[in-house]
Each structure stands twice: as structure tokens, then as C-alpha cells.
Amino acid sequence: MRIDKWVWSVRIFKSRTLAADSAKSGKIKLNGNTAKPASMVTVGDKIEVKKNGFIFEFIVTALLKSRVGAPLAPLHYTDITPEEEKNKYRTWFSAKAKIEFRDPGTGRPTKKDRREIDDFKDETFAFDWYDDEAEV
Q1: H-helix or E-strand spanning residue 115
Q2: Can you give the residue ranges of every domain in the chain?
């Protein structure tokens, strides 16, 4: 099975075009070597994917005939991504998922409202955890 088709089939990429483009640009490695879109994948191969600045690693456990649903995709690979990379991704993803909501019909915030919102964000999202040297 082609590597671009496999990474698309197990839902690592949204489209096969994105998968092929990533392989062409060298963002997909097969057993440590840069893979072309037509590189063949077999059971037991190690695949490394660079996506959104993160490096994900997988071992192929099964080949697919077509794209599968999200609940079935993890049955076809073993995720061997290092834990620190997963934590970095979770932090990025959870921060990205939070959306701001304003009640319909309230209009744009005034200058005073904007200052209050900014002060609230500064207090809520102040990250003290990044300064590990201060605690040592």
C-alpha cells in the first residue's frame, strides 16, 4: 500500500492530497528514510510524520483497503510518539479549541469592555509553569 494512501486512510491527514504533499516535501519518513508518496508500506514499518510543528511516530499493524472511520483507525497502527511530544500537542490543541463567545445582539465591545476582557485574559492565561528555574 502507498504511504500517502495509508496515512490518509488512518486519518492522520484530512485528504490524500495533503498526505501526498507532505510526503513530497519530506515531512513523512518511512523506517528513518524520507518517503515519497508512492513508497510502499508493509506491516511493521515505522512511520514518522511532521505535522503542524509536531512529530508523530507510528508502527503499522495492518493495511487497509479504504479509508476507515475514526474509531477504527487506531486499530491499524501503534502510536509510539514520545510522551513529551503528545503533551506538547495536547497543550496546543486545547488552547486552540477554546473559542470566545459573545451574546448575539450585544454589539462590539466598548473600549472599557475591551480593557476588562484583556485584564481577564492576562489573569486567566498567565503561565507560571514555564519558569522551572525559579523553583529550583
Answers
A1: helix 111-124
A2: 3-82
Can you give the pLDDT at residue 98?
61
**Would you give the DSSP letter of residue 109?**
-
3 state DSSP class of 96: helix
CATH class entry, domain 3-82: alpha beta
Coil, helix or strand at residue 98: coil
Yes or no: say if 20 and 3 are a contact pair by the CB < 8 Å rule.
Answer: no
Q: Which of 38, 60, 54, 116 is nearest to 91 (CA)?
A: 54
Per the rule left: phi > 0, alpha: psi between -120 and 50, beta: everything else, 35 is: beta
C-alpha torsion angle, residues 74, 75, 80, 85 (rounded to 10): 10
Residue 106 is classified by DSSP as S
* pTM metric for this prediction: 0.67
Q: Encode pLDDT of 60-86 as tens digits.
A: 999 998 999 999 999 999 999 888 888
Cβ neighbors of 15 (< 8 A, separation 6 or more) are 8
pLDDT classification of 90: cutoffs 50, 70, 90: confident
* Contact in structure between 67 and 14 (CB atoms under 8 Å): no
